[in-house]
Amino acid sequence: MRSRVPTAQTPPEAAAPSPGADRAAKLAVTVFPVLVLLAGAAGLLTPGTFDGWSANVPYLLGVVMFCMGLTMTPLDFKGVARRPWAVLIGLVAHYVIMPGLGWLVAHLLGLSPQLAAGVILVGCAPSGTASNVVTFLARGDVALSVSVATVSTVLAPLITPPLTLLLAGTYLPVDAGAMMGDILKTVLLPVLGGLLVRLVAGRIVTRVLGVMPWLSSVAIAAIVAAVVAASADSIKSAAVTVLLAVVLHNGLGLALGYGAGKLTRLGPPASRAMAFEVGMQNSGLAASLATAHFSPLAALPAAVFSVWHNISGALVAAVMAHRSRRRDREDAEPVAPPVPEPTP
Predict the structure, then answer these.
(1) pLDDT exceeds 90 at position 124
(2) What CATH number should be reported for the domain whose range is 13-321?
(3) Best-predicted range by mean pLDDT among 1-5, 184-188, 228-232?
(4) Nearest to 121 by CA among 145, 144, 102
(5) How many helices (H) and strands (E) does the chain have?
(6) H-only helix segments in 184-282
(7) Domain boundaries, the chain
(8) Helix, strand, coil share (%) of the chain residues, nearest 5
(9) What is the DSSP letter of 47?
(10) Mean per-residue pLDDT for 224-238?
(11) In sequence order, what are the beta bridge partners of 281?
């Protein structure tokens, strides 16, 4: 899911949401987890309904990424050139923190090889497609959020496979070359195709941009239903463990992402953006790769992550926005002039 909000042309101090955009973004991050949760429940309760759907997961992901490409403009890439240092910090934090946390969580919880590989693969995926919407709600630096998400997605074919091989190769065999080819076909080409269509038919695309988040949401929900249905027999025994792994992975990612922004002195709005660019993952891609290269069970962490990171992201964004507004009010309060001492 990706919803158009102020992007690279929006300065950090202008990131406070307008009432209309705020309502649209809140609706998107509220409805999306519910839709995905219902899809997961359907896959669990009626797995036979989704027989054969696993083969369609790469195509459904292609739809999601094409929709993402349609929402992008050249200004998103110009934002990278304007602030290369901040974007580099975001990329390094994303591709160091989340893969490392994935391996650490899998090791500490003693996950089975399939689940461990799935958790690590989630960590090695690029930024989540809803991260800029949640950054917008948190009154964060949306320009930085979009830039990091864009570059992490473009670089995913070069970074995700070798990272997965390095960290998950001890659990299961990893064909990094084949994985790279799949990411090129299901992520990079659809994104570039969407961007090209936007450049050629911008006026037409602008009229239907409001439909893109909902189309992406339906596609991701279908991915979750297919993944859950394919491993329905194993979910009951692994559900609690997988949920714990996902909550730890996501929660620590949000906290350490925010900490990375503070440590590098990027400022409060950029630190809020960093939290979501690090802690929210493209779980649709992780589910697709896990299904194709490991097993449906290995895709289960990605399916759970799809629901949880949107719920946690919306909650954390609400807290951050509340604190930001409170600081703004405190800064705006007039300071009473000092009372002169009486003259003797």
Answers:
(1) yes
(2) 1.20.1530.20
(3) 184-188
(4) 102
(5) 15, 0
(6) 189-200, 202-208, 212-230, 232-263, 268-279
(7) 13-321
(8) 80, 0, 20
(9) G
(10) 80
(11) 127
